[in-house]
Write a structure and sequence with these properties.
mainly alpha; Endonuclease Iii, domain 2; about 0% strand; binds iron/sulfur cluster
Length: about 210
């Protein structure tokens, strides 16, 4: 990838989506974002936001959710899908934060990924959004669009993350996540990306698109 093309793409993303995009999951404190992110797997953020409103009105802090009954939590979060596993994970994760970290969400990748239900992707959401630690979240949009743009040849999320960390300046990592997720929702959709009306069409190699 030529440096001037990369720079042009990053400049256009900044111009069209800004530099200060917020996470679209609703939360008031770090633990809530962690729980919401665990629940967002295979589910829309809009649906998660509806469910977490109810969930956090009943369980107001890690100890409360960490000692909740599985059936009670399942009933509240049923509509997010995979609710049995997600309920078990958010209970176990909240219990670990309560006991192991005294109620505080940890701020390192190693500690975050030691929590039940927390993989690299969820950990990077917390590092970027809460602690402002440069991190790249490889979700389905970031994986797909980074490939189409020619930023990576890989499909394995960890390898994509490594490729992006090598290529992108660290001060773009957090906002690249938000910009690309927005771009994926609006223009570069999984099926039928709107290349004709895309502001990146002149610098995108459209890899994998016939
Ligand atoms: S030109 Fe097409 S493939 Fe490239 S980013 Fe835009 S919509 Fe996606």
């Amino acid at each position: 990838m030529e440096k001037k093309i990369l720079k042009r793409i990053l400049t256009l993303l900044d111009k069209h989506y800004g530099k200060e995009l917020e996470c679209s999951l609703d939360y008031e404190e770090p633990w809530q974002l962690l729980v919401a992110t665990i629940m967002s797997a295979q589910c829309t953020d809009a649906r998660v936001n509806i469910v977490t409103k109810d969930l956090f009105s009943v369980y107001k802090e890690p100890h409360a959710l960490g000692t909740a009954k599985l059936k009670d939590v399942e009933t509240i979060i049923r509509s997010v899908g995979f609710y049995h596993n997600k309920a078990a994970n958010i209970i176990a994760c909240s219990a670990a934060i309560d006991k192991k970290f005294r109620g505080r969400v940890p701020d390192t990748l190693e500690e975050l990924t030691s929590l039940p239900g927390v993989g690299r992707k969820t950990a990077n959401v917390i590092l970027g959004n809460i602690y402002k630690t440069p991190s790249i979240v490889v979700d389905t949009h970031v994986k797909r669009i980074s490939f189409r743009l020619g930023f990576t040849d890989n499909t394995d999320p960890v390898k994509v993350e490594e490729d992006l960390m090598r290529l992108l300046p660290a001060d773009h990592w957090i906002r690249y996540n938000h910009q690309i997720i927005t771009h994926g929702r609006l223009i570069c959709k999984s099926q039928r990306p709107d290349c004709e009306n895309c502001f990146l069409k002149d610098c995108c190699i459209k890899k994998g698109i016939s």
